[in-house]
Amino acid sequence: MPPLYVPRPGLSIPGGWPTEGAPIDPVSTFHRNLVRDGDLVALPPPDADPAPASAPSPAPKTPKRT
């Protein structure tokens, strides 16, 4: 399955682009230029695991005053 592309956040693609993503036409110069310029970004595959959330680091221990 070809990758799906969505517009970069805050960007409007001339002629519109599906918000849920769509594959590009590899023979379309317009589509290839949108990807090259960063106007369209690839969505991660649906079966890809999301990035693991990092555990919060424990608070540094302060020495006890005696």
Mean pLDDT: 83
Strand content bin: 5-15%
> What sequence of helices (H) and strands (E) makes up the elements?
EHE
Class inferred from helices and paired strands = little secondary structure
Count, helices: 1
Helix-residue proportion:
10-25%
Rg, alpha carbons: 21 Å
- The span between the termini is 66 Å
The largest pleated sheet is described as:
2 strands, antiparallel
For the secondary structure, the number of strands is 2
Strand order within the widest sheet? 1-2
| Shape, per Cα inertia axes | elongated
Low-confidence stretches: none
Top keywords for this entry?
66 residues, little secondary structure, 12% helix, elongated
Describe it.
This protein is largely without helices or strands. The chain is elongated and about 75 Å long. The mean pLDDT is 83. The longest helix has 8 residues. The chain has a two-stranded antiparallel sheet with strand order 1-2. The chain has a domain of 38 residues.
In short:
With 66 residues, this protein is largely without helices or strands. The chain has one helix at 29-36, and strands at residues 5-7, 40-42.
Topology (elements, then pairings):
Layout: E1 5-7, H1 29-36, E2 40-42
Antiparallel strand pairs: 1-2
